[in-house]
Each structure stands twice: as C-alpha cells, then as structure tokens.
UniProtKB/TrEMBL annotation:
Domain of life of the native organism: Eukaryota
UniProt-listed GO biological process terms: rRNA processing
Annotated protein name in UniProt: Sugar-phosphatase
Origin species: Oryza barthii
InterPro entries xrefs: HAD-like_sf (IPR036412), HAD-SF_hydro_IIB (IPR006379), HAD_sf (IPR023214), YbeY (IPR002036)
GO molecular function terms attached to this record: metalloendopeptidase activity
Coiled coil regions, renumbered to chain: none
Amino acid sequence: MQPDENKKKAKIISDVDHFLSTIDIQKFVFLETPEVISSVLRPHWARRVDGKAQVVQAQGDVLEVVPLGTSKGNGVKILLESLCASPDEVMALGDGENDKEMLQLAGLGVALCNGCEVTKVVADVIGASNDESGVAQAIYKYL
C-alpha cells in the first residue's frame, strides 16, 4: 500500500444541506476574525447543525463544529480512566471556550489572562497570558 492511499482528498461540495444530511459530523474548523465568527459564522452554523452537532469557539479566530457531547473534558476523563488517575491529580490550562469542561474537571484549572471570559469564570486561578509564557509559568508555579 502506498503511503498516500489512506489520505482523504478535499472535495468541493455544492449542496451543503444534502451533504450534512448524509454524514456524521466529526469536526469542521473555521478560521476568521472574532467579529465575523460571532456575528456571521457562529449563528449560521449553530442553526445549520442544531441537534446534530455543537458549535464552540476556540480562543480568538477559530470556530469549531464538533459532535454533540464532544469536549476536551470528555477526552481528559477517558485519559484519566486509562491511567487510573483522579481529576485531583490533573492541572489543565486553557484560554478558549472549548477548554471550559476540561478546566472544570481538573483538580486545578488555570485560565490564561488573555483567554475568553467563559474560561476565566470556571478556572480556579488566572495565569499569565500566552505572550508572557503563561503555560510555562503555571507549570513552574503549581507543579
């Protein structure tokens, strides 16, 4: 088998409604300014996938359409089960709306100060920004 045989190729879709009715959504990612995401893309895609998927915004200019119930928190739960570990043994760091459930689950949830309000509200502590090496600072301070 050639290495490229397993790679999926992009294709142009002329009828999005038909396409959405024939697939299970895994993930769509849109890159755009925060203003366009909040005023155009998010409302549009929330209506289009209502009941089939959920729409979440990563920090800033990234909008994700993912299957219902998909979250980083659920991913961390799966990891904890496989490691026989408890949430109290985990520190999670995040800055986007898509980090909310993970920060809530972790024994210590650290939101970066330049993150979105949704993330900062659920965090246990607010760390430095991405520009100030906030992740590294939190690791050194709390671990």
